Amino acid sequence: MSRAERLYLQAKELDRINQGLASMSGNVNISFEFFPPRSDEMNQVLWQSVKKLEPLQPEFVSVTYGAGASTRERTHEVIEKIIEQTSLSAVPHLTCVDASESEIEQIAHRYWEIGVRHIVALRGDKPDASNNASDFSYATDLIYKLKSLYDFEISVAAYPEVHPEASSAQSDLENLKRKVDAGANRAITQFFFNTEKFLRFRDLCAQQQIDVDLIPGILPVTNFLQLLKFARFTQVEIPGWMHKMYQGLDQDPTTRQLIASHIAIEQVKLLAQEGIKNFHFYTLNRADLTYAICHSLGRRDCFAAAS
User: Fold this and answer.
1) Which residues pair with 29 in a beta bridge?
2) Is 5 a catalytic residue?
3) How many folded domains does the chain comprise?
4) CA dihedral 138, 142, 145, 150 (to 10 degrees)
5) Which of 32, 155, 214, 293 is 20 to 30 Å from 7 at the Cα level?
6) What residue numbers bound the domain in which 177 lies?
7) Is residue 287 part of a domain?
């Protein structure tokens, strides 16, 4: 086969994928993650992003919970404001290793009373053993507790490239299975850039009879140096091609934005081609890239469409 013929076939395949993605028009489910702001300036950025993304009608928006429950009150304030001032379904993250059983009960009661019906249940970072007053050791314990109090919908974390503390890939899968058996309704993955690893992980989950939705976590990358720090901590592989694409762009935010959008859209295209219809976006409290990517998925501003 000649080079021209190969290029023609590649272009034809790309056109097929693009046509398929366009035809999905709204047949995908999206969700967004935010984090509690640490300053007045970041607070303004957060709410501008919430308002920008609200018309896309996500399934839910989650709000993170800092290490050691350090943002507990700020998380609750953001959740409460989303419920009061938007049409969005607000979903708090909740960690358990840094909390007593009575604290978890109080938090659960408080959330249920303001209308929260969905929680992202996490173990959280392990505290210093000498200062650990927790009544819980694992996310599974938290799920059982929450389910015993109210009929919460529960999302949990999953790791296509294995949790850094797991003894093996198999033990990590078994832990996810325990969370699902405890009552989890879906699993949202750690961010990743090797799509093949996600698809293999999905197959392994099916083999383990983990039969809840496995939602890929999509991270548009505008700060590559920061990503490398995240990746070292989470043990996520950063492919060599990404290093090359971001090389020499430390002082060029505009080009980094374009590349970030391209990578994320291509990642979504590949996953959509494999039958994935649910996507969770780590927004980092910035709306523009996520909005553009979701627009390419066929999610349109419903407010603008109605006007």
Assistant:
1) 278
2) no
3) 1
4) -160
5) 293
6) 28-306
7) yes
